[in-house]
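ok so I'm stuck.
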Amino acid sequence: MIANMRRGCRAVAAAAGTGLLVIACSPATSPGTSTSASSPASSSASSSADPRARAAEVERVRDLLVGTWRRVEAPNEVLERYLVDGRTEVVSASGAVAGAGTWEVVAMDRAGDYSPTAIQQRGDPRTRMVVAAIDWNSMVWSIPLRGTTYHYTRVGLSPLAGFYGGHWRGLTIRADGTGTGYYKVVCDSTGAQCENGVYYDFVLEDVETDSGFSNAVRRITRVRPSAAGDLLRATERVRLDANTDVIFSGGITFCGSRARVSACGA
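replied:
not stuck anymore, here's the structure
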């Protein structure tokens, strides 16, 4: 048995052939799960001068930005996806990744009626666009000197959205299909290599729903600590049974609020 396993907890072994032994429980909270609606990004001039208020606004915009967005202006058949790890993807209507880059939210001097925050390609202020407004459902970017404005709407609700947990493990899926997972301990198939407190960010792709089941491919975009990356499969099929409110992933179950208590025990 794993030497660093805490007293009173037991191992959860994946199904045969997965090559993975997981020991996991859901913590009280997990990072990157904010989905509440917020007021527009603009704020008072006095608050923008406060370094703490500016830092808080940058964090708020960053949290809201994560997800998949559709631009109202042409070309509106292309989606833009912002991942937790600071990468961005341009996704076609068919779901294919047509381009990739990086992004960051930065504080800036207030400009008229605009927010003191902006988005840009990482480290490149020449690409900067002011975040004129943002909430859970929509956002507006502006380049004041050019008189250019872009409007975005968030891509609709994922059928798998919600929080799912189990003994020493957790899974949070946001409305747009991005999410964060947690394992208390992850080990290789022999139990020789283990990592504690493993978080991983992911996106759900190829989502299909039929006869009470939702199926998707979970693609990991970031693992913390990074050493645990080799212990988790980069892609994995997941399946939600809407009747029992249980997600199956790699031989492991994650239970929603309506699931039987015994469905995701140790």
